[in-house]
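We now fix the convention by which a protein and its fold are recorded. Here is one such record, which you should read through line by line:

>
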Amino acid sequence: MHITALNHDFVQVVVVWKDQRARYLTQPLASHVVRSLPSKAEGLLVPIPVRHTSLDKRGWNPLLDLSNEISHNSRLNTDGALLQWKRQPHEQRGLTNNQRDMNMNDAFRVTRSEQRWVWLLDDVMTSGATLRSAAKALRAADIRLKGCIVLAAPRMRSRMHS
């Protein structure tokens, strides 16, 4: 599986983008993503769903906006409805990697079968638990996962391949 992480130090930019509703950063972030993709990347771009509490707090879905902008500037199509929460996990901050894995276990469901290659999109990858759980749900639905795209990965782990 291909993992594209824009920058290990991008966390602060992502926090400003999401928490301060800096929507003007969406286009530049999308441009960085598009430039970092393999040259012939195609298929379906699926953002990790926004948590209900985050949507209530922020009033917008940054990853869906980013996914749409990436789709507009690449050969990837976007689908913000393919992957949904099966159950709302607890906040991940402060959890150990094992606790994160348990928290995210069986958290996603897939809404339909999809025959194209799928790329997952997330903002920050700390332990990889969210992406592993989403990938597991996609594989269970016989969906082909091409790779994962994250904006920031402060502690890139090789565990993503498990």
